[in-house]
UniProtKB/TrEMBL annotation:
<feature type="domain" description="Gfo/Idh/MocA-like oxidoreductase N-terminal">
    <location>
        <begin position="10"/>
        <end position="128"/>
    </location>
</feature>
<dbReference type="GO" id="GO:0000166">
    <property type="term" value="F:nucleotide binding"/>
</dbReference>
<dbReference type="InterPro" id="IPR000683">
    <property type="entry name" value="Gfo/Idh/MocA-like_OxRdtase_N"/>
</dbReference>
<dbReference type="InterPro" id="IPR004104">
    <property type="entry name" value="Gfo/Idh/MocA-like_OxRdtase_C"/>
</dbReference>
<dbReference type="Pfam" id="PF02894">
    <property type="entry name" value="GFO_IDH_MocA_C"/>
</dbReference>
<dbReference type="InterPro" id="IPR036291">
    <property type="entry name" value="NAD(P)-bd_dom_sf"/>
</dbReference>
<dbReference type="Pfam" id="PF01408">
    <property type="entry name" value="GFO_IDH_MocA"/>
</dbReference>
<dbReference type="InterPro" id="IPR051450">
    <property type="entry name" value="Gfo/Idh/MocA_Oxidoreductases"/>
</dbReference>
<feature type="domain" description="Gfo/Idh/MocA-like oxidoreductase C-terminal">
    <location>
        <begin position="144"/>
        <end position="405"/>
    </location>
</feature>
<protein>
    <recommendedName>
        <fullName>Gfo/Idh/MocA family oxidoreductase</fullName>
    </recommendedName>
</protein>
Length: 429
């Protein structure tokens, strides 16, 4: 962590899972970040967070629109609403002069993504997208190896996103993204992956895309005949990997207040809240009855100019949660990593193998999700705002925009079942 140049003040828009996560940085490092404003429609959450962060009444709002009516009162805004509610607040706060930390995805469609980037550039504010995997020490190490030419020219990248049975059922069945109108499974789950691939491919542009995918498992036809409507009364619950008791209640009883237990009650989970949620809400309903429009498996092939290829798979129902498997094959060497504590480099010229491990974090932080990537993101963002210097941000906004637009093209190739030529103008505003 760098020297602290000054205290940064922030307005947080959307105190849901991600908003609360990033705000915890202010509790961990009160000399670096202070939350001075909150916009959150759920009154009990707003009140709770107002007390936790000691925010003045005049800067607590039930919608971002009211906060945007005021002259700028914080250095930056942290926007953590759902993607359908990203474009309007981003543009409004950019016009007020705020630096912006914007949750991925930039927006729910290509046009809105471009508009956000266009307005932020015009207003000359910093816009940082929360593609948190770019901030992981492991992915930074891979970037360093690739950029230093250690593996030579990239021949092929293979990437698997293991979404996780818990994550898939919580996010895409019981939670925010069961319907495509809030973003497709590929956009929500895999814009991180396409973003990393974009980073490693550097200046090379993708020229062609194919993608296939389907939703095989979680639907009414696959519901076990004897299963019940709610997990708490289901006679086969013990055998079900998606049991609400196993996903929410059992971890809570073991003292785990993290994802996804923390997402089924508005405030800090307690036994009454968790029990009520799994007895009376969709968080306790049979996932086979609920179903989803999102895909549980998808494969993507990308052809890049110069001939390099990439294959990427997204699998919903897996044992690892938000796991990654990465292999990069170059003309001089190979890189392998699961982004979970090591990066292996094989040097084909010397026939040697070396394993790199990141140093343990030297500071204590609550931002442990995604292997600590959330911490590294906030550390970098707060520092950039304090110094008014975005050179430590690992993604240029052009590169973030490009990776999002490519993600939309991949979705299109899958929906239209076609080989899609990618325009060299992709990402040009
Ligand atoms: N970076 C990552 O790895 C990662 C992980 C999960 C989610 N996300 C992204 O983060 C974003 C938020 O997801 P989440 O899981 O925190 O969702 P969430 O539903 O927990 O939070 C959204 C919050 O926005 C609030 N909100 C709605 N309308 C509002 C308005 N008009 N003004 C102010 N607040 C408003 C809601 O009340 C809610 O508290 C999404 O874009 C999602 O894709 C990113």
């Amino acid at each position: 962590m760098s020297d602290v140049p000054r205290l940064v003040t922030a307005l947080v828009v959307g105190m849901g899972w991600r908003g609360k996560t990033y705000s915890n940085f202010a509790l961990d490092f009160p000399d670096r970040l202070k939350i001075v404003g909150i916009a959150e429609p759920r009154k009990e959450v707003l009140d709770h967070c107002q007390t936790a962060y000691n925010v003045a009444d005049k800067y607590c709002f039930q919608s971002w629109e009211d906060a945007a009516k005021l002259e700028k009162f914080a250095d930056c805004v942290i926007i953590c609403t759902l993607e359908s509610e990203h474009m309007a607040p981003s543009c409004a706060f950019a016009k007020r002069g705020y630096d912006i930390l914007l949750e991925k995805a930039i927006a729910e469609n290509a046009e809105n993504c471009k508009e956000v980037v266009r307005v932020c550039k015009e207003e000359k504010v910093q816009l940082v997208i929360c593609t948190v995997l770019r901030y992981l020490p492991e992915s930074r190490r891979i970037t360093e190896l690739v950029n230093n030419g250690v593996v030579g020219d990239i021949l092929n990248i293979q990437m698997i996103h293991h979404q996780g049975n818990v994550m898939y059922s919580h996010c895409y069945i019981r939670g925010n993204w069961s319907h495509v109108k809030t973003g497709t499974s590929f956009l929500i789950g895999c814009c991180h992956d396409i973003d990393l691939i974009t980073q490693w491919m550097g200046d090379r542009r993708c020229i062609s895309v194919t993608s296939f995918g389907s939703n095989i498992h979680l639907n009414k036809q696959n519901k076990p005949p004897e299963a019940g409507k709610m997990c708490v009364d289901c006679p086969v619950e013990e055998k079900c990997q998606f049991s609400a008791k196993k996903i929410y209640l059992d971890p809570f009883k073991k003292g785990d207040m993290g994802f996804p237990v923390n997402l089924i009650t508005p405030l800090v989970p307690d036994i009454e809240g968790v029990t009520k949620a799994i007895n009376t809400t969709k968080f306790g309903e049979c996932v086979y009855d609920l179903g989803t429009e999102q895909l549980d498996n998808q494969v993507v092939n990308l052809m890049y100019e110069g001939g390099s290829t990439v294959s990427m798979s997204h699998v919903g129902i897996t044992s690892r949660q938000a796991g990654r498997t990465i292999k990069i094959f170059g003309t001089k060497g190979e890189i392998e990593s699961n982004l979970d504590g090591s990066v292996t480099h094989y040097d084909l010229e010397t026939n040697t193998k070396s394993v790199w491990n990141p140093e343990p974090l030297k500071v204590k932080s609550q931002l442990t999700q995604f292997g600590g990537a959330d911490f590294h993101l906030m550390d970098t963002f707060v520092d950039s705002v304090a110094r008014r210097d975005s050179s430590r941000i690992p993604a240029t906004i052009e590169s973030s925009l490009y990776s999002h637009l490519l993600t939309f093209e991949i979705d299109r190739a899958q929906r239209e079942n076609t080989i899609l030529a990618i325009s060299p103008e992709l990402g040009v505003l």
